[in-house]
Amino acid sequence: MQRYFVKNSQIHDGIVDMDPIMHKHIAKVMRMKQGEKVIVTDESGQFFLATVFDLEGGRLILEKALDENNELDVDVTLVYGMPKGDKFEFVLQKATELGVTKIVPFLCARSLIKMDESKFMKKKPRYERIIQEASEQSHRNICPEVIAPIHLKELKDYLSEVNVVAYEESAKQGEVSAFHRALEKLTTSITIIVGPEGGFDESEITAMKDLGITPVGLGKRILRSESAPLYMLSVIGYERELA
């Protein structure tokens, strides 16, 4: 059944007013008819079964609340060194599917892309749309938040109960257990930090260690910058939901 996120302001007395994008998708893409059912999710993460009752006017009627929780039992913040090209959009989509709570673009010493807040804000609506579509597809209760890029000095504001940074030098030195040990301590929240294509400068790792962040290896293979956060999220998901 098709799912849609709606703002609380769209809901009045059990009626949902579709926004233009949602209306076009229901009417033109999905070609739904009067009386067809969808699931909508409000800003609190509550699911509702809804019926299309005014297709031309773009309105749904809420039928009943649904008891469904598809979120990880911990909050996961991904601090991700901005990559070049469309890799950031790929990671936004896949990290959302894997359960991330917040995505924090990180401008590092070796970042190949130059991005200031004004440039980022122009692209933010597109980023948010990618996240929303991925949240709907993966049956999330929430849409993860993506914030404006930060620098190293601001990193302390996004730390959690457990904090780790993927560091290829740890992998090269044969370190294989730090990530596992960190996850054993996890009860409420974790921040995972991944660098851009060129990795982290040694001074950045030193600064992170001073903040209490643990460098971790991710196995014997060296992963691309867009693969590492997805690997880490997959491991977290396995440990919290399947182990």
Largest sheet: 6 strands, mixed
What is the chains' assembly state?
single chain
What portion of residues is helical?
A: 25-40%
State the low-pLDDT regions, or none.
Answer: none
Pfam family, one: PUA_4
Organism: Intestinibaculum porci
Enzyme class: transferase
Function: Specifically methylates the N3 position of the uracil ring of uridine 1498 (m3U1498) in 16S rRNA. Acts on the fully assembled 30S ribosomal subunit.
Task: Write up what this structure looks like.
The protein is of the alpha/beta class and 243 residues long. The chain folds into two domains: 3-66, Ribosomal Protein L25, Chain P, CATH 2.40.240.20; 75-242, Alpha/beta knot, CATH 3.40.1280. Helices cover 32% and strands 23% of the residues. It contains seven helices and twelve strands. It has helices spanning 20-29, 87-97, 117-137, 168-172, 178-184, 202-210, 228-242, and strands spanning 3-5, 11-12, 15-17, 37-41, 47-54, 59-66, 75-81, 102-106, 145-146, 162-166, 189-194, 214-216. It has a six-stranded mixed beta sheet. Helix 2 (87-97) links the parallel strand 7 and strand 8 (102-106). The longest helix is centred in the middle third of the chain and has 21 residues, at 117-137. It is elongated and about 60 Å long. The model has no long low-confidence stretch (mean pLDDT 93).
Task: Quickly describe the structure.
The protein contains 7 helices and 12 strands. The radius of gyration is 20 Å and the shape is elongated. The chain has 2 domains: 3-66, Hypothetical PUA domain-like, domain 1 (Ribosomal Protein L25, Chain P); 75-242, Alpha/beta knot.
